[in-house]
Amino acid sequence: MPRSGGRSTTERCSFCDKSKLEVEKLIQGGRPGIYICNTCVEICHSIIDESKESEKAPPLYLDEIPTPRQIVSELDDFIISQDMAKKVLAVAGHNHFKRLLPLSDDADDSVKIEKSNMLLLGPTGCGKTALARAMATLLDVPFAIGDATTLTEAGYVGEDVENLILKLVQDADYNIERAQQGIIFVDEIDKVGRATANVSITRDVSGEGVQQSLLKLIEGTVANVPPQGGRKHPEQQYLQVDTTNILFICAGTFTGIEHIIAKREDMAEGTVGGFSNRDLYDAESLKSRKEIMDKLQPEDLIEFGMIPELLGRLPVVATLDPLDEGDLIRVLQEPRDALVKQYTKLFSLNETRLRFTSDALREIARLAIKRKTGARALRSILEEVMLDVLYELPDHKGELQEFVVNKAVVDHRTFSKGGKTLRKDEKKKSDNDQDHRKTA
After folding, report:
1. Is residue 10 within 8 Å of residue 19, measured between CB atoms?
2. CA–CA separation, 239 vs 237, rounded Å?
3. Phi first, then psi: what are they for 187, rounded to 5°?
4. What is the reported pTM?
5. Which of 56, 157, 314, 415 could be 119's S-S partner, Cβ–Cβ 3.0 to 4.6 Å?
6. How far are the Cα atoms of 1, 3, 23, 33 from residue 8, in angstroms, in the given order?
7. Maximum C-alpha span of the chain
8. Cβ(93)–Cβ(73) under 8 Å?
9. Distance, CA of 237 to chain centre
């Protein structure tokens, strides 16, 4: 007899509603009237297999991991000096990405290799950001830079720490698997240190609170990332990103930590060159600072304001030295994208050769040291020196065969026009006189 509603009493699959005549096999469940067909069983198996595959580590996008020596050799093309920092970064980066490679059949998979997250310490303009960026370029992995000073603890005005992950996902063109093998550079990490080494009973939402929020992110967790950024809200769709294989590089200037180290080591002023009373870029102070920073210990960073839990997740620590005059001269000329090479290319587009004399380069380096912002000062100085030249150059395309930048050009911001060398103020006066003559 037919069932109520007109349906046949023939057994049917409870999932796809096909009768036993339409499938190869119909399996009865634990309750009467419950069946599943062989087709639905196969579909369930495939769903389970896909779930297991998704739990495995995603394939590494690198065809081959460069050796530490190869990494350092490539970094030398971008960064001048900082040999020890390059070595530390190369070893940590090599080991981090090598742990993502599939294990061989006879390898022991019971031993888990932890991440080599890094902490870089050094004055402004010494190459911290450039090192991390060059490493990401060399390894061809997504790269994101975040400023720790813009972050706040969840629920407060400011950016959530998950926005760091969003920047990485965007750099990977929203390829989640590729983003999960990228590098995140967190700058100004020293600016979120707590004010005192003592445990605080009040909230420090943009200081210690940020450090607390970074803990699980750096160690490895599945982060819910708003695809458009901004604050989270319950109705929003999230991107789920596993941070287990993301390499975190934190950096900061840690201004004044040398005094904490000197105090712990009982270094009296004068013993190491009287560091506290000297200019940071003084030749003697450079040597003194290096001697002090070589004695850096985790307790010095804790006294500075870093929480022990965060330091435990940044096992690799490297210090960078301020750049001296010789280093800055090399920065101007040697890197792949050196400023001298950039300006030379710019002049060549106007069919003019550009040449810098050695005394001009030395003077530019000296001016940069006085500004105390490291290599960052070099470009601003060159922009000032070359402003008037670049203003006039396009109007004389092909007429000027060579332009030489010497010490006089750097000191007085002079340039040649009509066979006469003019200073800025003289040029203005000359142009005014010429306009006056034209009017007359």
Report:
1. yes
2. 7
3. -90, 165
4. 0.71
5. 314
6. 8, 6, 16, 13
7. 117
8. no
9. 27
Quickly tell me which residue has 């005192």 as its tokens. 196
Residue type, 315: P
CB atoms within 10 A of CB 105: 5
Q: What Å distances lie between residue 58 and 61, 100, 338, CA to CA?
A: 9, 9, 37
Q: What is the pLDDT of residues 242-262, one digit of tens each?
A: 999 999 999 999 988 988 988
Instruction: Give the 3-state secondary structure percentages of the chain, helix then strand then coil, rounded to 5.
Output: 45, 15, 40
> Rounded distance, CA 135 to CA 94, Å?
10
| H-assigned helices in 118-273 | 128-139, 162-171, 176-179, 208-219, 257-264
Strand ranges, E, within 253-387 = 316-319, 353-356
Structure tokens that stand for 315 in this block: 């096992």
Only one residue has tokens 């983003």, namely 179
Residues 121-155: b if buried by 16+ CB within 10 A, e if exposed: bbbbbbbbbbbbbbbbebbebbbbbbebbebbbee
Residues 6+ positions from 64 with CB-CB distance below 8 Å: none
pLDDT tens digits for range 108-122: 566 777 888 999 999
Q: Are the C-beta atoms of residues 174 and 184 closer than 8 Å to each other?
A: no
